[in-house]
């Protein structure tokens, strides 16, 4: 555990430097729809096995969750529930509360969780482990709820002084690199699913850097895993249609507070696996669909684009599957390099996104054919509709007002006022090279 902590903390420093220094600017202008589409699509498709494994414990329960989430979020989203409201001026009044539109996931989970509880106390689900349907019982993890402490606050050094090893650091660095690729895809998916313009360079720089800080803090207080964006959360935004940063910020505070209460955390663990699998089926499907929707910008009648897309998706699914089953066959003569390659090549998003990136920027094609023109036009058109006083990707209002008083933030890669000369230069060079290749 201490070695994992130390390796995670060292590897997170690389992510912090890459994010806040703006090194990603050299690559962001070269990222187009044919890079984003396979990356985001593979984020959802690569998790189908996780969804299948958790849902297979009781398919009837999992499909009930899917059905209720679809019914609540789509068929019943415009059905209001009358509620009372009191104010000093008007007294008691009636308002319409769209509960099905705001809480489709919570409602579906609560209804099916209650059904699982009823089926558990009536022994509809078998009590013997190994029988189909046993995983849908609500008392499988009850003993962990009894053993959990009421309150526990994480603190640095709780497992001892973190240690560092070369192999552990290289392994974590390869995980960080794969995580950054996935995070960039998550940012674009989140922006698209919430109706926001594609994230600019400063927002991506800031996101990657802050994720690095999160990994550093996680390792410092005893965590063995890093902190990164998660596809299920993006799917939740798409279903609930709530993408407010204030809501996300408040949710984060609530999670940190409740995370100190062990009983509450274990209570969530008691949720039967088939319920979780049902949520995964919907949410991961939403993420994959968002990735596919990016193809509307490219010319799908072009054999060039079809080849890039097909190769990226198919190799992105096939190679990681083989690597995970045959890790011993990855031999370069260096144990550290073998470990790095295993981690990188087992990431569907890294493999598919990297292949799409290389092919899209090396195979001749016009900007119109690649979808770059429409992509840039959408960015410009959406940017014009943003409030002049408050940009979508700005800092919170009080901080932004303070930053706007100075001129030096235009040189800081993670500030909203950052003037990215590198991105514009790289984009122009790429466009010129692409046009020359097509002409030749």
From TrEMBL:
It is a multi-pass membrane protein. InterPro entries: NCS2 (IPR006043). Coiled coil: none annotated. Keywords: Membrane, Transmembrane, Transmembrane helix. GO terms for molecular function: transmembrane transporter activity. One of its GO terms (cellular component) is membrane. It is found in: Membrane. Its main location: membrane. The chain crosses the membrane at residues 31-51, 57-76, 97-121, 159-178, 246-269, 275-294, 306-323, 343-363. Belongs to the nucleobase:cation symporter-2 (NCS2) (TC 2.A.40) family. The keyword Membrane applies. This is Solute carrier family 23 member 1-like.
């Amino acid at each position: 555990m201490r070695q994992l902590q130390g390796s995670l903390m060292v590897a997170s420093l690389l992510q912090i430097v890459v994010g806040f220094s703006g090194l990603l600017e050299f690559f962001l202008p070269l990222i187009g729809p044919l890079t984003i589409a396979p990356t985001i699509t593979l984020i959802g498709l690569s998790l189908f096995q996780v969804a299948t494994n958790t849902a297979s414990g009781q398919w009837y329960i999992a499909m009930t969750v899917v059905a209720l989430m679809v019914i609540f979020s789509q068929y019943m989203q415009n059905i209001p529930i009358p509620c009372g409201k009191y104010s000093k001026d008007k007294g008691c009044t009636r308002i319409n509360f769209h509960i099905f539109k705001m809480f489709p996931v919570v409602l579906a989970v609560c209804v099916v969780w209650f059904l699982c509880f009823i089926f558990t106390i009536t022994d509809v689900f078998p009590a013997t482990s190994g029988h189909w349907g046993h995983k849908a019982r609500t008392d499988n993890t009850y003993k962990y709820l009894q053993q959990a402490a009421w309150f526990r606050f994480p603190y640095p050094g709780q497992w001892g002084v973190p240690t560092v090893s070369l192999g552990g650091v290289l392994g974590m660095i390869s995980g960080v690199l794969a995580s950054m690729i996935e995070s960039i895809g998550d940012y674009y998916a989140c922006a698209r699913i919430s109706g926001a313009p594609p994230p600019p360079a400063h927002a991506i720089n800031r996101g990657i850097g802050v994720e690095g800080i999160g990994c550093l803090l996680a390792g410092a207080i005893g965590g063995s895993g890093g902190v990164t964006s998660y596809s299920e959360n993006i799917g939740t935004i798409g279903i609930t249609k709530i993408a407010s940063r204030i809501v996300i910020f408040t949710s984060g505070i609530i999670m940190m507070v409740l995370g100190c209460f062990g009983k509450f955390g274990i209570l969530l663990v008691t949720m039967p696996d088939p319920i979780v699998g049902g949520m995964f089926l919907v949410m991961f499907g939403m993420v994959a669909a968002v990735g596919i929707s990016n193809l509307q910008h490219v010319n799908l009648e072009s054999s060039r684009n079809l080849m890039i897309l097909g190769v990226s998706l198919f190799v992105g699914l096939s190679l990681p599957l083989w690597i995970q089953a045959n890790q011993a066959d990855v031999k370069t003569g260096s144990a550290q390099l073998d470990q790095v390659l295993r981690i990188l090549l087992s990431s569907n998003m890294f493999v598919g996104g990297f292949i799409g990136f290389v092919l899209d920027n090396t195979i001749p094609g016009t900007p119109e054919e690649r979808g770059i023109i429409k992509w840039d036009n959408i960015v410009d058109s959406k940017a014009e509709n943003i409030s002049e006083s408050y940009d979508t990707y700005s800092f919170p209002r009080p901080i932004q007002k303070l930053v706007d008083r100075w001129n030096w933030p235009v040189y800081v890669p993670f500030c909203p006022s950052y003037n990215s000369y590198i991105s514009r230069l790289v984009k122009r060079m790429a466009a010129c090279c692409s046009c020359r290749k097509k002409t030749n």
